[in-house]
Amino acid sequence: MLPKKLQEKLNQRRETNALRQLKVPNAELVDFSSNDYLGFSKNPVIFSRAGEILKEHNLELNGAAGSRLLSGNHKLYELTERFIAKTHKVEAALIFNSGYDANVGFFGSVPQRGDVILYDEFIHASIRDGIQMSHAKAYKFKHNDLNDLESKLSLRAQSRSLEKANDSQIYVVTESVFSMDGDSPDLLKLVGLCEQFSAQVFIDEAHAIGVFGTGIIDDLGLGNRVTRLVTFGKAMGCHGAAILGSEILKSYLVNFARSLIYTTALPPHSVATILAAYEHAASDAKKSNSALIKLRKNIQYFCEELKKQQLQEFFIKSDSAIHCAILPGNARVKHISATLLEAGFDVKAILSPTVPAGQERLRICLHSYNSQNEIKILLALLAKSLE
């Protein structure tokens, strides 16, 4: 039996149209909801190559059978981590079982008592959970607001000086593409600002890798000035994540990140698929009809259609694959999502409390495999629903 107070919490969710349910897959719907931006999760070349990698290294196993500090650190880990580090032009990469595990592991072990974490108010839940595990003090700054960040950096720096805590560290945390907004901060200015205050920068690139080549950080040439997270469950189409940084950081995380130490490692097939996805992304990028080029064309077409349908006022400005229409009220946004579903389009309604009350939204994810006609029909249906 579920305790009464827990049942009451469920009832409250139900009464406010906020009850979460596991989604039932429907292959007949047009996909505008998944994070499979490049179609890599269904790519037969990546699937076949992963099998070849396992055979090449005699690793036809179903599981890792232990943590990475025990039996689970099979040889594909080192091979794949070297490939990832070389791709992103950093010293080292450390693979975790998921982006959630990586963020919890980093923030639960790296910031220490006396340190300060400044995080964007819209930062991902996994980072918030990691921060809660830390002994550092944490303060949020307004979303993508560098003036507010500078004010808080200045305040923390003054406090550090007054306390003569020269060994205390400031960490600034943001995302290169925000998962529930699709927008991005001015990362060049943000990193420069943080360097003025000797603050360490951590960037979550979960929704940028693949959509912006090897990520916005690489595009901007900031790879050796920040620590970052890349995940493989979005555009890379598989599973897992990695923290990118220095060799000494990697060694520290191996010793102190509990979400790495105390969990069974990814099975060889998962790591082989990560390597195969990276290899394929590199080779596909050289083609004139690459998945990335198709995706970028669809993003451009989507933005053009927004103007034609006069829908810009509802949407958060975005150059990414994520485009969100703010439609306040759980009941309202669920109704519009259901209307689109009936027409054959899978578009996710994002409800409060996942986002703040009054900021409920439709989250439209674009992919390389969506057709321009599908995009046009979707936005025409949305415009009609909003009349």
Task: Write a concise synopsis of the structure shown.
The chain has about 375 residues and is an alpha/beta fold. The protein has helices at about 5-15, 45-55, 75-90, 100-110, 125-135, 145-165, 185-195, 215-220, 245-255, 260, 270-285, 290-310, 330-340, 370-385; strands spanning about 30, 90-95, 115-120, 135-140, 170-175, 200-205, 225-230, 240-245, 320-325, 345, 350, 360-365. α3 (about 75-90) runs parallel beside α11 and α12 (about 290-310) packs parallel to α14 (about 370-385).
CATH class of the largest domain: Alpha Beta
Average residue pLDDT: 95
How do the helices and strands follow one another from N- to C-terminus?
A: HEHHEHEHEHEHEHEEHHHHEHEEEH
- What number of domains? 2
CATH architecture of the largest domain: 3-Layer(aba) Sandwich
The secondary-structure class comes to alpha/beta
* Residue windows where pLDDT falls under 50 for at least 5 positions: none
How large is the radius of gyration? 22 Å
Question: Biggest sheet, in brief?
Answer: 7 strands, mixed
Keywords:
387 residues, alpha/beta, Aspartate Aminotransferase, domain 1, 2 domains, 14 helices, globular, pyridoxal phosphate, Aminotransferase_I/II_large, PyrdxlP-dep_Trfase
